[in-house]
Amino acid sequence: MEKRNESKNKEKGFTLIELLIVMIILGLLAALVGPPAIKKLGQSKTKATKAQITLLETSLDMFRMDVGRYPTTEEGLNALVQKSQNIERWDGPYLKKGVPNDPWGKPYQYKCPGEHGDFDIISYGADGKIGGDDENCDISSWENVK
Asked: Does the pLDDT of residue 81 top 80, yes or no?
């Protein structure tokens, strides 16, 4: 009877070796799955940026139809959500939820007249700097494929 009580009193659990093996397996899985998942996240942010630029272009076209011109660089994209004093036929807001930041949390750069068209809209990507590759690449209205 004493042996039965002793075995009941012993706590069951994992040994240190078992825990180390599980941690190694988890580390290997993270190393295999992590990089492709991060790459997909970067690609989805790039696609979201292109979609937002298209939305901004459409809103700017609606602004132009009402006002007769695109907002100036000084008025910026905020003219799509808030009327300036020098705008007469404004019938906005042209964006329901305000001017979005790019998926990396940085404001879009807007210039009118643009160097590549009536206006230029650009996101400098994850690093916020001109140029770059992959997630750091610039995404612009003149290179945005619709």
From this structure: yes
